[in-house]
């Protein structure tokens, strides 16, 4: 490969992954109706898919809707079109409108003061690599969040950074309806 050629990253099929990952593919297909390309790409590594799903599915002090706020804000900041698209679909499943999702991606939630504090805190955490502003931290706690919630925010941000970076590195096909660019 010359320095001017671009490497192509492919998503493996069920037949191209290990037996343990094939079992995970089968469970994903049963539960979701398909195996998202992001999950399939993790299966190129023997243990990464199972490890990632364990992280994603851990018990949390945050509600699903709150986790989607974090996912949308983080994916927007990191410029991950795959995750923006996936979490737009998941955000709608969790009751957000198209307009609310676009606003959340910009780090705001004028429609809900508690979610606004969460979005602002998440934005500050991600943009400042964990050195969130005192103002965003105080607004987060004033909105009713706890230190246990803060830990979960950081875990969800970490989860999303993993998937954002993986897609940003590879650019494999987005298999969700494409999110609007903002």
- Report, as a whole number of angstroms, the end-to-end distance: 35 Å
Order of helices and strands: HHHHHHHHH
- Please count the helical segments: 9
| Main CATH class of the largest domain | Mainly Alpha
CATH architecture of the largest domain: Up-down Bundle
Bin the strand percentage: under 5%
How many separate structural domains?
2
Cα Rg: 17 Å
Q: Main β-sheet: number of strands, strand sense, barrel status? A: none
Could you report the average pLDDT, rounded to the nearest whole number? 97
Principal-axes shape call = globular
CATH topology of the largest domain: AhpD-like
Number of strands: 0
Return the structural class.
Answer: mainly alpha
Helix proportion range: 55-70%
CATH superfamily of the largest domain: AhpD-like
Give the low-confidence spans: none
What this model shows, in words?
- The chain is mainly alpha-helical.
- It has 2 domains: 43 residues, no CATH class; 107 residues, AhpD-like, CATH 1.20.1290.
- Helices cover 62% and strands 0% of the residues.
- The chain has 9 helices and no strands.
